[in-house]
Amino acid sequence: MDNVILFGIVTVVVVLLLAMFFSLVPVALWISALAANVRVSIITLIGMRLRRVIPAMIVNPLIKATKAGIDLPINKLEAHYLAGGNVDRVVNALIAAQRADIPLEFERAAAIDLAGRDVLEAVQMSVNPKVIETPVIAAVAKDGIEVKAKAKVTVRANIDRLVGGAGEPTVIARVGEGIVTTIGSSSSHKEVLENPDSISQTVLSKGLESGTAFEILSIDIADVDVGRNIGAQLQTDQAEADKRIAQAKAEERRAMAVAREQEMIAAVQEMRAKVVEAESEVPKAMAAALRDGKMGVMDYYNMRNVIADTEMRNSIAAQPTE
Predict the structure, then answer these.
(1) Which of 138, 165, 166, 271 could share a disulfide with 161, CB 3.0–4.6 Å?
(2) CB count in 10 Å sphere of residue 120
């Protein structure tokens, strides 16, 4: 009975030891490395586990590189992984560069990968150039006609400038600026329509690839179209603005004339009111003169006769003569 218990305890201990061993040592991966003639020691694999490095992320790319004839130290691959890089993508880029006869060292590829750029895509773009299409760019020629153009830029990745070099948005912006400058300096929109290659030649001569991660191979104008007549529209807007200014000034003069007329009417009404007021005082004055004996009754009748005679003469003078 004691032997059976002892045997069971030993079996459990052995199983636990084997489980711990296989959890620390990726035996299958070690065997795959030996089969591919890649010398990786068990101690190295255990050290990767302890450093929280996934052994397959290092050993599999190392096997791939060895089969491609590229000698890479395992310490550099592990260091690149710990730095946050993509070891498999870097190795694929090195293999692609070797096949395309492009000089690319591991340090350069690792630096490009850590800079956030796809080093494999860059190598592929070096072999197969990429076409970047710009949006529709509108510019105005000297004759006031708007011209709309769209360009296709063929670029090739410059591996030496991938770290610190500007990307596609910078290339598109520079090409757009060159198109606007070329169209704007043309004396007529017809020149642009007749010879769109002048845009490509002018833009290429500006050295737009400076400071970018690309080498510009060609700039082709894909489409040219005529837009609005900006010059005529500006003249129309200016004429409309002048018209509104003239209308405003005329309205101002009319308002001033109306104000002056109202002032004159008010002044005449005031004068009439004063005359009426003065006339209302005449009977009072005559009554006072009669009462005080300063004026006699005959004087009053003589004055009324003079007034009646004056009104008759004015009526005769107002009648039209035949």
Answers:
(1) 165
(2) 22
